Every structure is written in C-alpha cells, then in structure tokens.
Amino acid sequence: MKKTNEKVLMSVIAGMTALQGVSSTMMNINATTSHVANVKQTMTKSDEFESKLHDAKNIVDEKKIDFNSAKGAYSVASKQLEILQAAYDARNVVVKQNYQATYDAIMNELQPILNEIESLETQINDSKKNLEEQSALNEKASVDLEQAQKNLDAKKTELAELQNKLATLKDVADLTTALETAKSEQAAANEVLTSAQEKADAANTELTNAIADAEAKKAAVEEASVAYNNAVADVTAKTNIVAEKQAIVDQFEDENGIENARAELETAQADLALAQNNVTALQETMTQAQTAYDAVVNAQQTAQTNYELAVGELETAKTNLANAQESLIKAQTDYDANQKEIEAKNNEILALNTQIVNAQSEVDRAQDDYDKAFDDYNSTSSPLEQAKKNLADFESKYATELSRLTAGSKGYFESLGCYDILKEIFNVNNDSSSRGELASYTHMGQAGDATSLENMQASIAYLKEYDKLRKQNGLSTPKVSMVAMAIAQVNANYAQAEGNHSGVYGYSENLAWGYGEAGTGASPFRGWYDYEKKQYEAGNHKFSEVGHYLNIMNPDDETTGFALQKVNGVYAQEFGYFEEKDIVMSIDEFETSFNDYYNNLKSVDTQHKALKDAVNNANGTTTKDDTALKNAVALLKSKKDVLTGLQNKLTQVNNAKATLEANAIVTNNAVTEAKNAVQNAENTVNQKKADVTNAEQKLSEAKTNVEAKETAKAEAEKKLADAKANVNSIQARIDTLNDNIANWDTNKAKARKELQAAQENLKTANNVKTEAKKAFEKANEDVAKAEAVRDEAQIKADQACEELEKATADFEAKSEATDKAQKAVDDYNTSVETVKNAQAEMKIIGNQIDALKAVKESTNEKISSLKEQIKALNETLTEKKADALSFEQARTVLNDVMDQGSKADLTSVENEKIRAFLSQLGATVDERDVVQKSLEKAKNNYVEKYNLYLDAKEAFLKAESDYNEVLSQLNAFLFEQNKETIPAKKEEAKTDSVNTGVSTNVEASVTTAGLALAGIVLTETKRRKK
Known about the structure:
Blueprint: H1 2-29, H2 33-168, H3 172-253, H4 257-379, H5 383-397, H6 399-404, H7 409-416, H8 419-422, H9 433-439, H10 453-472, E1 479-481, H11 482-498, E2 508-513, H12 525-537, H13 543-553, E3 559-565, E4 570-576, E5 584-585, H14 587-618, H15 627-742, H16 744-900, H17 912-990, H18 996-1025
Parallel strand pairs: 1-3
Antiparallel strand pairs: 1-5, 2-4, 3-4
Helix pairs in contact: 1-2, 1-18, 2-16, 2-17, 3-4, 3-16, 4-15, 5-14, 10-14, 12-13, 15-16, 16-17, 17-18
C-alpha cells in the first residue's frame, strides 16, 4: 500500500513538472495576454494542490507511526496477559488438586461418621414413625374407646326403654290370635262385600233395563193412545157426518122438511153460540196446561243443570283427591330426602370430629415444636451452633418429607400406604418383561416426567373436566384409582417416547398429543369428547373413530386415572375397575388429599431452605438465628388455622343440620297436612257421589212431571181442537141449512149421495177404530207388565244397595280392626327385633371395648419401648454428631481457606494431618492469588492498550481517507486543464509559426502530461478496487 501511494505521488509530481515546462515554452511562443494569464492561473492552482497533498502525506506518515506504536504496545500487553493467564491456570490446577486432596482427607474421616449418622437417623425416623403410628393408634383407640363407652351407655338406656315398652304390650300369642281372627273376619266380610257388590251391580243393571223397557212401553202406549183417540175421533166425526147427512136426507123427505130445516137452522145457530163459548173456555184451559208444562220443563232443565253440576263437582273432587295424593307423595319424598340429608350431615359431623381430633393433635405437636424452638433459641449461645442445631433437628424430624421432595408420585403413594401394591408397575425388573420394559420409560420424580409432583397436580384439572362432562350427561363419575393413576403415568411416558399405546395393561385408554390446558379450547377433551360426540350423534358408531368418546361415556367404568407430560403435551387417561387393596377416592377427595400432601412438602422445603440459608448466613454474625422459631410460629399458626377452619366448618355443618332438622318438622307437618288433605278429599268425593245420586233422582222426578204435564197439555190441545172442529161443523151445518132451504130439490138429491158416501166412510173409520183399540189395549197391558217388572227391579236394587252399604261398613270396620291388630303385632315384633339388635350391638360394642383396651395396652407397651429406643438412638446420634462436628468445621475451614488462603483461621482444626493439608492448600491459594492480582492488572492494561490501538487505527484510516480525497481533487483538476489545453494547440497549428519544432515539443509534453494524468486515474481506480 505504501509503495503504491509513493508511486502515485511521483507520478503526480512528474505530471506537474511536465505541465510547467509546457507552460514556459508556450509563454515563449505565444505572447497573447489571455494565454499568459491562463498559464499564471494554472501555476497558482497547482501550487495549492501540491501544498495540500504534501500536508496530507505528512499526516498519513504521522498517524501510521502512531498506529504502529499502539499496535506494538497492544501486542506486548496481549502477550503479558497470555503468560499471566497460563501462570494462573497452572497455579489454579494445583489449588484444585490440593483442595480435592484436603477434601478427600476430611471426607475419609467424616464419611464413615456421616454414614453412621444417616443410619441412626433412619433408625430414629423409623422409630419415630412407628411411635407416631402407635401414638395415633393409641390416641384413636382412646377416642374410639370413649365413644364406644358412650355408645354402650346409650344402648343400655335404649335397651331398658325398649324392654319397658315390650313389657306393656300383650302376649304375642294373644296378639297373633287376635290378628288371625281379625284377618279371618276381614276375609269373610270381604266375601260378603264382593257378593253384595255383585248383587247390587246385577240389580242396578236389571233396574236400568226395566226402566228403559217401561219407558219404551210408555212411548208405545202414547203412540197407540194417539192412534186410538184419532180413530175414535174420526168415527165420532164420521158418525156425526152420517147423522147429519141422514138428517138432511130425512129433512128433505119429510113433508114438513123445509119448515123443520128452518127450525133446525135456528137451533144450529143457538148451538154455534154455545160451541163458540166452549172454545173460549177450552182455550183458557189450554193456556193453563201450557203454563204448567213450561214450568215443569224449566224444573227439568234446572234438575238437569244441577245434575251436571253435581257430576262436574264430583270430577273436580276426584281431581282434587288425585292432586292431594300426589302432594302427599311429594311431601313424603321431601321428608325422606330431608332425612337422608340429615343422615349425611351426621356422617359429615362424625368425619369432622375425627379430623378435628387429628388437627388438635397436629396443633399440640406444633405447640411442642414451638416450645422446643423457643427453648432452643433462648438456650443456644452461638448463632452458628443454633442454626446448625435447628437444621439438624428439622432434617431429623422431617427426613421423610425431605426425601419425598424428589420422589414424585412414589412418595404420595407411600403416604397413602399403597406403594407396595404399585411398585411393580414402576419396576424395570418386573417378572413380566413387557411391564418391565414399559417401566423403563419412567424416571420417577424427574422434572417433566409424568410421575413428577407438578404433572400429577396438573392432572387434577383434567379429572375435574372429565367429571363435569359425565355429570352433563347424567352419569356418575368413577372413583380416582391409585392403580389407574400409576398405569396412566407409565403409559404417558411411553407414549411420549413411542407415540402409541403400550397395550400392556388391560385398561381402556385415551391418549392425546399436542393439546393444552384443561377447560380451554386446547384441552384434549375437545378432540376426545366434543369432536367424537358430533361424529357419534351423526351416526358414526365405529369404535376406532369414536372410541375416546365411548370410553368417557361408559356407564360401567368403576375407576379412572389421568397422567400427563405437560411440557411435551402428552395426555393419558385410564378407565378400569376396582382392584383388591387399591385405594380409590372421589375426584374432590383426591384433589384435597394430593394438594394437602403437595403443599405440606412445599412448606417443608421452604422451611428447610430457610434453615440452610440461616446456617450459611450465621458465620461471623452475633445475632441469634430465629429462623426455626419463626418457622415454628408459622407452623403453629398454620395448624391452628386448620383446626379453626375445621371447627368453623363443624359449626356450619351443625347449623346446616339444625336447619335440616327444622325443615324436617316442616316437611313432617306437610306430610300430616297432606294426609289430612287426602282424607278430606276422599270425604268430599263420597259426598259428591251422594250429591250426584240425589240430583239424578230429582232429575228423574222432573222428567216424570214433564211427561204428566205433557200428557195433560196434549189432552187440552185435543179438546180445544175438537171444540174448534165442532164450531166449524155447526157453522158448516148452518151454511148447509141455508143452502138447502134456498136450493131444496137440488140439494135433496145431493144429500142422498153424500149420505151414502158418509156411511161408507163411517164403516171404514169403525174398522180402523177397532184395530186401534186392540193395539191400545195391548200397549196398556205391556206397560202394566213393564212397570210391574220395573217396580220389582227397583225393590231388588234398593235391597241390594242397602245390603252393599251394610257389607261395606262391616268390611271397613273389620279392616280397621285388622290394621289395629297388625299394628299391634308389628309393634311387638319391631320392639322384639329392636331389643335383639340393641343386645347384639351391645355385644359388638363390648367386644370393641375389649379390643380397644387391648390395643391401648399393646400400643402403650410399644410406645414405651419405642421412646426408650429413640432415646438411646438419639444419645448415640448426639455422640456421632459430636464426632462429626470437628470434621464438619474442617469442611467449613476448607471453604474459608479457599476464600482467604493462609490467612484463614486453622485453630479449630484438631486433626494434624488435615491441618497440614489445609496449610499446604493455603500456601497454594496465596500463590494463586498473587498471580491473580497480576493477572487482573494485566487484563486492565490489555484493555487499555487495546482501546489505544483501536483509536490509533481509526485516526490512521481517517488520514488515509483525507489523503485520497486530495488525490481525487487533483485528478479532477488535471483532467479539466487537459481539456482546455488541447483545443488551443489545435488552433495554433492552423496559423503560421516561426519555430514549428517548439510546437512539436509542446505537444509531446502535453501528451506526456496526459499520460501522467491517465496513470494517476488508473492507479487510483486500482487502489479503490483493492
């Protein structure tokens, strides 16, 4: 780069010289003023560029020297840093080796003691666990014994009351005999009632038929009567006509006929007046008959309305009876449901009382822990010793919980006491190779594994969603099975790796990949349930396509389990059946059980970390550590809160029970009221039946009255019609007499013909009358016979009804007596059975008391033995911890030496060998620390030199850039000058010149200058490309 720049510079100088030579020559040849001025101006501009280029070149040289200097310093600093880093690394390796050797020396002494301590702690924990179990058994036995004694006393009181009640009852033989007699009499009464009912039904049927027949016969009489009366009237009318016609003929043949006709006319006229008066009187009679008929018709209509109203009221009464019976059933159902709720509350109260006893034990235990922590806090002088003691006590007390923090589902199953039946599911050495291979996919308790506590807790939300879907479809939810949970966990781990069902266990199974949170649109149930349900309801019943939905909705499943790998999005649900020794719970019970376990572990872990931090923070402090005391206070508060919560819940349940008991009184009253309502409704139905019978009788009487009045009205109508006909007849006779008198001879011949015709008509009418009379007499005979049959049937029906009423009353009385006798026997049997049950329960309770006393005696012995055992183990443990203390302190000093080197205090280390190791380690740490300080200085120097190097590099690059800018400006200037000079030369060539050789030389110089300019441009172009 440097050589290139120098070449460019020399080319520029040569070019400039050539241009100056040309200018001088041109000044000698051409003396024009304008040309001279141009040459002078060019020389001034060239000097300016030459000066700038020179300055830029000097700056580039200076910056390059600075850059090279900074680069050298940076290189030296880098080398120094490299050397010191290597020295530090070498010494650090020695430190680590010495640290490991020292640590191994300490642990060679400490580890055997720690192993013994661990063994002792395990024995102590086991003994404490046994002690807790025995204490719990003892305490439970005490509580159960007290309750059993109370139960026994209560049963004794109950038995005495029952025996007293039994003594007041009659002898069972007498009661049984009375019952059998009552049943026999009831059966006999029932037979009589059945027979009476049959007779009454038959008599009523016969009466109904007889009434119908009599009514039919009456109708026939009415028809025959009308026909006969019409025939009689017709004969009478025709007889009268014959007599009239005969009189007319006689009158015409009598020599005094015309005089007689005139006399008869006068008589007829007198008769007409009488007949007209008779019509008027009969018209009044007819009006009265019509009024009487209308009155009885209205009465019949009223009776009909009353009958229909009575029938309607009877139906209403029957409906009310049905409603009352339905209300009774509902009231009884409500009462029974209320009793079941009271029973459930009693069970809940019993369970809460047990939980409260346990919670009180926990409070007492927490109080003891607090008292101990308080005493330890007040008795411990050294904060470090106190902190270590607190940690050791805590780890001893909660060794089981601490070990379960990473044990995953195994720890939870152990807490339930069911891991022994589940461990083969997780055993890679299972006798079944397929099950062992399946178990190999599971890494118990590891993060992300389906057995981790976090994933196990996450499964609860999916189980609750499953429960919700089952309830939406009216199905009960299977129990959560620990066996099914374990199988779901190994299958989920297998499915994550292999992407398929394992097919190892005989459970129905749903698997899903890539879904999300329960209860959201990303839940696996969106596919298992929502999608497949639509397919199923659309008619697709292939198990391969809707099997997940069918598994969820299977009504025969008894148990279920759910597992997932939340991070990997794998979900497995098992559906199965109850297995021997399996532990099952409802989903709510499982949620409470697991969360209590999980939260307790988290609380223990938090307290443990706080105690460890307290130990780490206790060095060099004079303030006592109150972590254990605070933890004890928090734990005591927590346990008291739990106890208070349970007590509050017990109060709530007792209040709820009291509400239910108050409601029981209400519902019992409702049952009584409903029974009374049913009885009242039955009485109303019976009354309405009687009302219907009465209304029916009155309706029948009204119909009879209508028939009688209708007959009277018909007779009045007929008499009125006859009277009117008589008026018309007399009028016709008068008309005839008038005509005869006026036309005597003509009418005489006509009268003879009419007489003959009238006689023929009368003969025919008499024949009709004879037949009508026979029919009327026959109809009357039939009516008399039918009414006789009807009256006889009525008598029989009345007798049958009376016998039925007697039989019914007798049966009801016998039934009531039977019910009383049965109740007496039932009361006696119930009392006897209750006495037997009470005696059996007393015996069972007595056996329980004996067993509980034996348990208390046994557990007391075990508790005493375990306490002695724990005391001895604690003494040995204290000795071993004392032995380990110096080595534990040596481990602490080891860390101090790593931090402080030879300045660390080794006086607490009693072991000479370990002290020598620590001394040697301190020396190597010192050497390393010395080198480390130099290394830190070298690092700082390196950074400083490196920054100076970067600054110098930047300044050098800027100088080069400025230099290149001047070159660019010069190139542009020379290029412009070359364009102006060449046209002037061409103009001079056209004119005459004294010395053409000079012109040739000038042109050569200009050409040389052009080549120089071209060289500059070419070189600059190449430099830029580089």
